[in-house]
Amino acid sequence: MKIVIAPDSFKESLSALGVADAIETGFKKVFPNATYVKIPMADGGEGTVQSLADALQGRLITVEVTAPLGNKVKAEFAISGDEQTAIIEMAAASGLHLVPIEKRDPTKTTSYGTGELIKAALDLGVKKLILGIGGSATNDGGVGMLQALGIRFLDINGKEIGFGGSALNNIEKIDRTSLDARLQNVELQVACDVNNPLCGEKGASATFGPQKGATPNMVEQLDRALAHFAKIAERDLHLNIRDQAGAGAAGGMGGGLLLLPNVQLKAGVQIVIDAVRLAEHLKDADLVITGEGRMDSQTIHGKTPIGVAKTAKANNKPVIAITGCLREDYDVVYNHGIDAVFPIIRQLGTLEETLAKGRENLESAAQNVARLYKLAH
């Protein structure tokens, strides 16, 4: 019997590989002779770098980059075992967690550090970049990132504009002649799980600005700045980035990335599924197990368990989800390829106690699922 274990991480408790290990341990108590294939998964957000590093036998690399407020921080990205693919999370360099609550102001924050991470990956000679763009602290349209890669955004005096979302109002010319030439020979896949346009009531500023510290006045200012950026991009580069689906992701970075060559905006979980060749592993599987920390109705919108389930169902495989906890609206997942769901929490306790017992609870739940599966067969 072959069992494929392909879960996401349990946030603040276990990495995706840690979850897979615990499920395997529990199942082996009932099926010690089964063949287990563990595939750490992610959906392009937090944990994607670690998951793909584990799945692709890669390693983590630490570099110093520019944080959203201009200070220096250490950030990690991963390179695959064959050193052909780099995996980057925007949040590592430009994430909201890098900005203290009292200093959150997307009119000032920059994505420059994300561009520095991309350059560090290019220095290693990679041929493919996977970039997750969730969790950003920025609303600068990815202009900071583009500046780090050599694109010049010039003001009325021919000088480079400053950092921050409001600085986009000062763009008078976009010059791509100094763009890092290595990008011409690199495939760039962007994990983008929202379809918001760049501007307007569903755009980057209105939808995501407030959670980054933007006041209503800032939202209006930032939206005008992104619209101005889009206008100059269309005039100078003949690119329509304003209305592209996904352009509003990560404070407009989805739109800014369209200024680079060989860019594909894709669903994050699909990028991971393709990178780890999940479909190939499932062809001869008897059972597929997936999971995430909390399952609810949002799970069906591009999250790991549904991506795994859809891939499994394309091969007519049964799918069981083991989760940290459930919300009452979780049962919609049964309409999207998941056959059964099992939460792991065994007893009440504080959040800290529950997180600390993540592995123990997972092993116990996995063993019970295995016993039930054995009964059914």
UniProtKB/TrEMBL annotation:
Transmembrane segments: none annotated. Keywords: Kinase, Transferase. GO terms for biological process: organic acid phosphorylation. Gene3D superfamilies: Glycerate kinase, domain 1, Glycerate kinase, domain 2. InterPro entries: Glyc_kinase_flavodox-like_fold, Glycerate_kinase, Glycerate_kinase_RE-like, Glycerate_kinase_sf. It comes from the Bacteria. GO terms for molecular function: glycerate kinase activity. Belongs to the glycerate kinase type-1 family. This is Glycerate kinase. It comes from Exercitatus varius. The lineage of its organism: Bacteria, Pseudomonadati, Pseudomonadota, Gammaproteobacteria, Pasteurellales.
